[in-house]
Write a structure and sequence with these properties.
Chain lengths: 319, 352
C-alpha cells in the first residue's frame, strides 16, 4: 500500500486541493471556486481528488488551511489545521529553499512573508483595505466587461498605464470610472488597475519590510501577468512565479500533514455524510454572542462562538 | 476597565453615602450604544466609555465620574458631557482631571455636592487603602500573566483571582488588606504549573485602555496563554497613577537614540519598553492600540525600527469596535508559529 496525503486550502474565492505522496510529489491537484459555500466546495473538490488515487493507495493524513480551515478541518476530521501564513511558507520553501521574500495575493487577503535562514522571520497581512486583492480585480473586470483571466494579457499590451488612486478600493473604483468616462482606452485602464494593485500592496502590506530577492509571488493574482510585470518594474528585481503558485498553500499544508503522520487511514466516502451548520444569537446576556452549531449527520459535534458556558445551554438556543 | 471597577466601587462606597451603581461589564450592547452616539473617527476607548456611561444611566445613575489623561482622553469628559446632555439626560459630570491637573479644592466641592456629609480626611484614608489595593492587584496580575499559560488545571488562576478580589472588596483597614494580600499571594504560588525552563516570552506594549480592557483587545493575553507563552505587560493602573511621572522621563533617557522628548500619553514609555524587551531577548513584541490613537501611531514607526535593529518579531494590532475576531486569531497563530520556529532554529545553532 502506498501512502498519500491531502492538503486543502479553502480561501474566500477559491478552494484548492492537492494529493502528495511520501516523496512530496504532486499526484493530483484541483482548483475550484468556493462561491461562499465552503462545505459544498470541499465536497466537490474531494469527489474529484478521489478519482486520482490509485487502487493501492491509502490516505494517511489530511491538512486544512485558509479562512475556512477550522470548519473544514472539523468536517474531514483533519490531522492538522494550520494558518495560511505558515502553510504558504512551508510550501514555498520546499520548492525554493533560498527564497527570501514571499508575496502572496489571494482573493480577500494579501500577505508578505520574510524568510531568513529558511525560517519565517517576519510577516504582515492586509488589515483594513481590500484594494490590493483578487476580489477587487474580479469586480473591476466585471465592470469593464472582461473576465479576470483576460486582464493580465490586456495589461501587457498597454504602454501608458493610467494612474489610479490606489489607497482604497472605493476611491480606486470611482477613479476608474472617471478615467473610462473621459475616454482612456481599455488597455491603459486595465494596466493602471494592475499597477494600482502592486502599489497598494507595497504601501500597505509591504510597508517597512525589507524586500530582498529571491522573491516568489503566489496566490491567485500571481496568474495575472500584468501584476507580475509591475511588481518587476517597481521592485526592480526578478519575480519568480511557480506553475503551481495558486496551489502553494494547499501543497504546504499537505507537506505538514505528511510530516505529522497519524496512524489513521481516511475513508473519503465520509464526505457523503450530511454536514450542517446552524447559526443563532445567544440570549443569555447582553453580549448576544453569535453561536454556530455544527452537525455531522444528526449529531451535534461542536459549538463555536460562545464567550461563556451560557451559550451551550439549550434554553438560550432559540433558533 | 478590567477588574479595576472593584477598587473604584470600594472607594466610592466608603466615602459617599449615595448608592453606587457599578457599570455593567462591557458587552456587545455597550459597544453598539457607544458606536451609535460617537463621532466615527474618534479613538475606540471613547466609544467604549460612552457606551458604558449610557448603560449606567439606563440603570439609574445620575452622576458620572470621569478621569482624563495626556492625549485625546483629556477631552473625553467635555465631549461626552455634551453628547449626554444632547440626548436629553440631566446628569452631573465630575471631572477628576481638568486641563491636565487635578484640582483638589474643586473636587472637594464636587463631592460635597453629591453628599453633604462628605469628610475630607475619611476620603483620604480610603483613597490610601484603594491605592494599596490597586498596587496589590497589579502585583498579583503580574504573576498571573507570566504563569497563566502553564497552569496544570485550567482556570485555577482565574478562579483564585476572583476569590481574592471578592475578599479585597470587604476589607476596612490597610493592615487587613495587606494580610489578605499575603495570604492570596501564597496561594497563587501554590498553584501547580508546568513551566519549562525557557518558555516563549512575549511583551505586550501599547495604548493603555486597549491593553487593560480584555474586551477591547479580544482577550489577547488569554489567547497567548493558550499557546503556552509567558506574557509581560507594564501598563497598569498603578503604573499610570504613581510610577509614570518618574518612569516616563527615564524611558526617554534610556531610548535617547530614538526619541528626544515625550510624545503624549504612553508613546515614549512604549518606545523605551520596546528597547528594553528587545535587549532582554524577548521572543516577540505585540504592539496594540485602538484605531485612531494618535500618540501610538507616532510611536509605531520607531517601534518597528527598534525591532528591526534587534531582529525581534513585531506584531501590530489596531482594534476597532468591529474588528474580525477570526483575523486576529489567524495572526496570533502565525505569530506563534514564527517565534517558535525561530527559537528552535536558534537552539539548534547554539548546540552546534
Amino acid at each position: 500500500m502506498k501512502n498519500y496525503y491531502i492538503g486543502i486550502d479553502i480561501g474566500s474565492i477559491s478552494t484548492k486541493g492537492v494529493i502528495i505522496d511520501d516523496n512530496s510529489n504532486i499526484l493530483v491537484s484541483k482548483y475550484i471556486w468556493t462561491e461562499a459555500n465552503p462545505i459544498k466546495a470541499v465536497k466537490d473538490l474531494l469527489k474529484d481528488l478521489k478519482m486520482g488515487i490509485p487502487k493501492d493507495g491509502q490516505i494517511k493524513g489530511i491538512g486544512t488551511t485558509g479562512s475556512a480551515r477550522k470548519l473544514i478541518g472539523l468536517m474531514v476530521d483533519a490531522s492538522i489545521v494550520k494558518n495560511e501564513i505558515t502553510a504558504h511558507a512551508i510550501g514555498t520553501l520546499h520548492y525554493y529553499p533560498d527564497v527570501k521574500t514571499i508575496l502572496e495575493i489571494g482573493g480577500q487577503d494579501s500577505k508578505i512573508i520574510i524568510i531568513n535562514n529558511g525560517i519565517v522571520s517576519d510577516y504582515a497581512m492586509n488589515t483594513l483595505c481590500a484594494a490590493g486583492t483578487g476580489a477587487f480585480l474580479t469586480s473591476q473586470a466585471k465592470r469593464l466587461g472582461l473576465s479576470v483571466e483576460e486582464l493580465g494579457q490586456m495589461a501587457l499590451s498597454s504602454k501608458t498605464p493610467v494612474k489610479i488612486a490606489a489607497r482604497c478600493s472605493v476611491f480606486a473604483e470611482s477613479d476608474l470610472i472617471h478615467k473610462a468616462q473621459v475616454g482612456y482606452n481599455k488597455e491603459d485602464i486595465v494596466a493602471g488597475l494592475c499597477r494600482s494593485v502592486v502599489i497598494n500592496y507595497l504601501n500597505n502590506v509591504g510597508k517597512g519590510k525589507r524586500i530582498e530577492g529571491p522573491i516568489v509571488f503566489q496566490g491567485g493574482v500571481s496568474k495575472n501577468s500584468g501584476v507580475v510585470k509591475y511588481f518587476k518594474e517597481i521592485l526592480k528585481q526578478d519575480i519568480i512565479v511557480d506553475e503551481n503558485s495558486h496551489l502553494m498553500g494547499a501543497i504546504g499544508i499537505a507537506l505538514l500533514a505528511m510530516q505529522n503522520k497519524t496512524s489513521k487511514t481516511y475513508d473519503l466516502n465520509m464526505i457523503d455524510i450530511r454536514f450542517e451548520t446552524k447559526g443563532f444569537e445567544c440570549q443569555g446576556c447582553s453580549n448576544n454572542c453569535e453561536i454556530l452549531k455544527i452537525y455531522r449527520g444528526q449529531k451535534l459535534i461542536d459549538v463555536w462562538g460562545n464567550r461563556c458556558p451560557k451559550g451551550l445551554k439549550e434554553e438560550n438556543m432559540n433558533i | 476597565m478590567g477588574n479595576y471597577f472593584i477598587p473604584v466601587n470600594y472607594l466610592l462606597k466608603h466615602i459617599l453615602k449615595t448608592e453606587v451603581i457599578p457599570s455593567p461589564p462591557i458587552s456587545s450592547k455597550t459597544i453598539e450604544l457607544g458606536n451609535k452616539y460617537s463621532p466615527d473617527f474618534v479613538c475606540t476607548p471613547f466609544k467604549f466609555t460612552l457606551g458604558t456611561i449610557l448603560e449606567a444611566i439606563e440603570n439609574g445613575a445620575d452622576t458620572i465620574i470621569q478621569a482624563g489623561g495626556g492625549c485625546r482622553y483629556g477631552y473625553y469628559h467635555e465631549l461626552q458631557e455634551q453628547i449626554i446632555s444632547d440626548l436629553g439626560h440631566n446628569i452631573l459630570f465630575i471631572n477628576l482631571v481638568s486641563q491636565g491637573k487635578t484640582d483638589l479644592k474643586k473636587l472637594y466641592h464636587d463631592m460635597k455636592q453629591i453628599d453633604s456629609d462628605f469628610n475630607f480626611l475619611k476620603g483620604l484614608y480610603y483613597l490610601y487603602i484603594t491605592a494599596k489595593m490597586v498596587k496589590y492587584m497589579d502585583k498579583i496580575d503580574h504573576y498571573i500573566r507570566s504563569n497563566l499559560g502553564f497552569e496544570e488545571k485550567e482556570g485555577s488562576f482565574t478562579q483564585l483571582q476572583k476569590q481574592m478580589l471578592e475578599a479585597f472588596s470587604k476589607v476596612n483597614n490597610p493592615l487587613s488588606l495587606y494580610l489578605k494580600y499575603l495570604k492570596y499571594k501564597k496561594q497563587f504560588k501554590k498553584i501547580k504549573t508546568n513551566k519549562p525552563l525557557k518558555p516563549l516570552k512575549v511583551g505586550i506594549i501599547g495604548e493603555l485602555y486597549t491593553i487593560m480592557e480584555p474586551f477591547a483587545n479580544y482577550e489577547l493575553e488569554k489567547e497567548l496563554a493558550k499557546y503556552n507563552i509567558e506574557v509581560k505587560r507594564y501598563t497598569n493602573v498603578h503604573y499610570l497613577l504613581f510610577e509614570k511621572k518618574k518612569q516616563a522621563q527615564k524611558y526617554v533617557k534610556y531610548a535617547k537614540e530614538y526619541i528626544k522628548y515625550k510624545m503624549g500619553a504612553d508613546a515614549a514609555d512604549n518606545i523605551g519598553r520596546c528597547k528594553y524587551l528587545c535587549e532582554k531577548k524577548y521572543d516577540g513584541i505585540i504592539h496594540i492600540k485602538s484605531s485612531f490613537c494618535t500618540p501610538e501611531i507616532g510611536a509605531m514607526p520607531i517601534i518597528s525600527k527598534i525591532c528591526r535593529y534587534y531582529d525581534v518579531p513585531l506584531l501590530n494590532f489596531s482594534f476597532d469596535t468591529n474588528t474580525s475576531e477570526v483575523g486576529i486569531k489567524t495572526r496570533i497563530e502565525a505569530f506563534y508559529d514564527m517565534i517558535e520556529m525561530r527559537k528552535k532554529y536558534e537552539e539548534l545553532l547554539h548546540r552546534d
